[in-house]
Amino acid sequence: MGDLLGVAVLGAGHMGADHIRRLDRVVSGARVAAVADPDAARAKEAATGIEGVTVHTEAEAALDAPGVEAVLIASPGPAHQEALLAAFARGLPVLCEKPMVPDSAGALRILEAEARLGRRLTQIGFMRRYDAGYRRLKALLDDGRLGRPLMLHCVHRNVSSPPGFTSAMLIDSSVSHEIDAARWLLGQELTAVTVRRPRPSSGAPQGLLDPQFVLFETDGGALVDVEIFVNCGFGYQVRCEAVCKAGSARIGDDQGVLVTTGGAAGADVPQDYLVRFADAYDREIQSWVDATRRGLVTGPTVWDGYAASAVAEAGIRALESDTCVPVELAPRPGLYSPAGP
Amino acid sequence: MGDLLGVAVLGAGHMGADHIRRLDRVVSGARVAAVADPDAARAKEAATGIEGVTVHTEAEAALDAPGVEAVLIASPGPAHQEALLAAFARGLPVLCEKPMVPDSAGALRILEAEARLGRRLTQIGFMRRYDAGYRRLKALLDDGRLGRPLMLHCVHRNVSSPPGFTSAMLIDSSVSHEIDAARWLLGQELTAVTVRRPRPSSGAPQGLLDPQFVLFETDGGALVDVEIFVNCGFGYQVRCEAVCKAGSARIGDDQGVLVTTGGAAGADVPQDYLVRFADAYDREIQSWVDATRRGLVTGPTVWDGYAASAVAEAGIRALESDTCVPVELAPRPGLYSPAGP
Amino acid sequence: MGDLLGVAVLGAGHMGADHIRRLDRVVSGARVAAVADPDAARAKEAATGIEGVTVHTEAEAALDAPGVEAVLIASPGPAHQEALLAAFARGLPVLCEKPMVPDSAGALRILEAEARLGRRLTQIGFMRRYDAGYRRLKALLDDGRLGRPLMLHCVHRNVSSPPGFTSAMLIDSSVSHEIDAARWLLGQELTAVTVRRPRPSSGAPQGLLDPQFVLFETDGGALVDVEIFVNCGFGYQVRCEAVCKAGSARIGDDQGVLVTTGGAAGADVPQDYLVRFADAYDREIQSWVDATRRGLVTGPTVWDGYAASAVAEAGIRALESDTCVPVELAPRPGLYSPAGP
Amino acid sequence: MGDLLGVAVLGAGHMGADHIRRLDRVVSGARVAAVADPDAARAKEAATGIEGVTVHTEAEAALDAPGVEAVLIASPGPAHQEALLAAFARGLPVLCEKPMVPDSAGALRILEAEARLGRRLTQIGFMRRYDAGYRRLKALLDDGRLGRPLMLHCVHRNVSSPPGFTSAMLIDSSVSHEIDAARWLLGQELTAVTVRRPRPSSGAPQGLLDPQFVLFETDGGALVDVEIFVNCGFGYQVRCEAVCKAGSARIGDDQGVLVTTGGAAGADVPQDYLVRFADAYDREIQSWVDATRRGLVTGPTVWDGYAASAVAEAGIRALESDTCVPVELAPRPGLYSPAGP
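Output (structure tokens, whole complex):
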């Protein structure tokens, strides 16, 4: 199969299976060479119908399978650290789904490990950087015509949270997308975080502090506020408005089909992030495959993964303490330049 | 009551009662001095609570009542011709609801009668000229930045038609608003009309040709197309897009409150023209009162009323003959300049 | 002039002159009976062309002028306390422009004075309660179909601030509109306030902390956040989104005329609040005149004026201290029920 | 290269080169096996960097090149007929860009040729059927909740027309997209066509009748109107509104990034169809590759290509004669069912 990039996919759950389908049937230039999941049946099902793939229950076995030239990590967060170190040991380029590593101490170990390698192997799966709307917003902010960004107003709503979702996960699982998007859009680090919350919605599971309102400060003197509401019931909505010195720019209000019927004019709201960001996932994986085949590593870095962990941890402390909590970051290794994908 | 303009209102039906309320309680500088309706009870009810008003069953008696200085004609169309001539005979300024006179022959008699007076007494109630959206669109076309208008795309939808509404009334009662709006926005006369229609909607009463699609040509080389659909069921919608040499401009998509709930994002659609155009009616009557108190006559003229009748009649012939029918207008008397209100 | 309500207008500046014009030429049922301004020339100019009006340099003289039955206070804030007490002494119904009294201690004196009268004489000029969009939003929240309100996201932008505008005035002059609107929309009191701010825009005058981001908590467990940016340069924008248990509702994105030209599709943004809220001012004054003529007092109360002062003062302390500051309100006299206009 | 579909691309101009890039770098499961263009340098340049491709000046040589399993025809329209017959002779599946064949007589010959084969080999490149907006509109019409479609209002605007564009090409090159989209959306044939036109825009080249307004009738009793304006100057805009018995649905007003600056709020308008419909082209080609690898032929048929030609020819006669011209279609061979992709 010559020049198709052979990819080992670790994890065959919801996200892993979607990426396997994407590599097999959507993007150009790659093939799925190996699939690993502790649940052998799940791994096998996800690999069904793919020519030349091998199926494994151990991640390392998949990395060593014939034809594997790169790794896509879509296993649960706690398994990421070991998988990343295994990929580093083999010199394999890797796309690692977010969170890179759930805790900032572990994230720091990955940062140090890649820095010791002296070269980047890893792209982190912050896929909003590949969404057409976010990219247009980024281009607009970068071209300077609106002047310096002063504030970002963000809204992030899910229909409902999965079982076991905790109040802290609103921040480290959901707001982590806005943490990365804000750092990337502004080209700034987040330096402090405050969390306020209304009395929880009666639509949220008992005990879950949902919604929350998170307010970040940046080292460039900007503010970033985020409404996170994971049991809003009415749809999946992601909006972002940048308010700058000379204008504002907003994404996330596209209407698709405007339907007027029965006394109301409106549009359907997508119910799921895989619908809203389907194109972004496609573009992200295509971009990773293209860069990897050319021997390059682009996109969000291990530094971005580490910073997101550290900011999210400060956010959780802010939620628990009801105070403004500063974010403390380790020094940034020279390997990681501020440029985005 | 000194300097308040004393107005006789002819007709105390739906529209007349609304105008009586407006004169009494909304606009400044006028009072209702007399009300006439053949149905004495209806006239009395509409006049309830108004100080110093007299109530009549004969239009002429109302015109001759004490304190009457001006006339607002809101009686059914067939009564307009006689009422207008009675106002002319007394030299009273008049605001006449549309249609000025239902048929173009009668309209021509009014045109000739006012022309013989040698001065304007009459403003015709084409209230879209007073709607904020239409006025902004007119200002935009007049300032020239979009270049010469090439096409107007118009949409006019009602929830349902009143009992007795005929296929011809889609044109001479409903599209007559677009006929005047197009003449006013473009500053051009309509010269020909074609009507096409799909198979009628199953939501329309049996036998009513609804919707229809009406296509006008103008003496300035523009096209005007109108979707008229009077039993659309879903709301009252009026849209107008002007397509010009260097840009387009569209009104009628305002959203009011954007509500997102249950998987859809949207806005309520008004159900009635008295809701959609409430401000326009207020502005129209205030403007008429203000001008009349200063001894002026502004707004749509008898020529505009006549031209609307003549174009609508050609439209009905086009509907019946399925051909393109030319519009033939009598010569325009010098009294009527093309300027709008 | 019989039953027209005779109004004394105190203050003939920008706002006072606009209200004089409105009483004289827009609303129904009132007339300007007296005008007072320390600048006699300004008072005279504002009264030009109005029949039967008297002109004064002293507020009390105007209140005692012949035909005065009600008072509209549009003088600068520091003059309001004395004018209100003078109106109370005469038993005159009064519409008082915001701020009712600039400081909460003075506001409390007015509250106590009207409470001693045992009846309401005063309506405070929070005109957003009369804006069509806000009213539809209020009706939507009140009808309960969206469930309990959890958050209000507010945006308030001005093209530029007038000379002498201070960092505190962003809160007590500008955000005071959102303070009242939030209290009214939610039917809740604001209990605490935090202010965060980015590095000021280079478009703001040197030394002015502009923009600011203000976060309120309420006694009903809701959050209210406000972006206030008074030198945004690009237009006057007021938006409000209510996020509820079962849906969200947003006002302030109306587009008027959608113009497409030269590679962009968009709409003009109004440059001024007198343009954006012209209809709200008309409705407010008409409503006041109508109620007063019927011997009623409706609309925002002295309690609303006092609460706005107290919340704004806490906001200024929050800005200066960079902490969360609680709002402390005096007990609410029985005279003031929570109902809005 | 095992199971990658080997594709011969005929034509290496603007569209051909874009498809070569798409097959090579965007879609999954295909490779470019051969490129043909009479301009050898152009063919070579388009093939640069592609492994295993051969380059030709003759279309038939490309079809016979090693590894060719399917054909994508992107040569100029007059070359299509011969290329299609050559593909038929070799039993090769083919994707043929629109117009299938420029004249309906030639289109009929292709229809008869494929019908003689007794199986479908050909998909026609009507890519709007693959646009996300059109697909949602089609799904909405098909699910029946809006009731029977009565009218389609279509707008199709280009910034400027290429050199040599004729008045007839507004119909057979531009409106042909709406002809196919209307047939597909409604599942009906177009039976008659009328063309009206305003005085041409001064922005159009001398002698070009631009814009035009085209009105179709269908065998299902619907109307379809199309504004075609190929020198509008301000952007590439494609809109479509379906008006049904119980509601309307509109696509084409997406705003992307809403930018507010300098007194205006709006969004950029794309300047080019390759920008607006980039995703649709990707989806179209991916869909064709996927079907072809599974031995299937889906998507728009030769019948669709023929019908578009016949309707466009009637449209040109309607433009020239200023009358309503009926569309006459040959009998539909049993091979072609009405189903879309």
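The interface with chain C takes residues 1-4, 24-29, 51, 132-133, 136-137, 140, 145-146, 246-251, 253-262, 279, 286, 290 of chain B (CB under 8 Å).
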